[in-house]
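=== RUN LOG ===
request id: a7f3
mode: sequence -> structure
chains: 1
length: 200
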Amino acid sequence: MTDGPWLVVGLGNPGPTYAGNRHNVGHMVLETLARDVPGSFVTHRSRAAVLDGRLGTVASGAPGPRVVLAKPASYMNVSGKPVAALMRFYDVEPARLLVVHDELDLPLSTLRLKQGGGEGGHNGLKSISQALGTRDYLRLRVGIGRPPGRMDPADYVLRDFASTERDDVALTLVDAADAVADLVAHGLEYAQTRWHAPRP
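=== RESULT ===
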């Protein structure tokens, strides 16, 4: 691995109104991950809250990989511009960009890592792909489940998690943060092997 940073972007909408929404699970994962990175989020000129530091430690006790954690301050459907600005500022290639986002098509608490592919109707991913001119970046898909009955998916993603789901969500945020750490430290294949297995 080079010493260049990984850019880990958690998607969501800004402000307290949206903070607990299913659509903001990317922000929640980054806030969990930030517990293992010294420092705190600061406002960056790219219109994002950014934490630049080392993630944990390696076996020798030395500081772990350098990561830039970023929560765009824009709304979800225009995430591409701040992400592209951050990539230019930190000189990050798409292969070292990991986007953490909610996924309707996965059951609650399921995690899936992949590189490239389509956006599956996710407006945040569409905006990023358009701004970068490529889909060939890494994604961590965090399952939020399908809406009940005939509820509009657009309404569902802007609702908070139910009280009955919160214990599972809390565990999932920790698992997702660990999955990010595994990917940046050991690579995609290692992380997929570990995190795509059923939870015991």
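=== NOTES ===
The beta strands are 6-10, 42-44, 48-54, 66-72, 97-103, 111-115, 138-143.
The chain has a mean pLDDT of 92.
=== END ===
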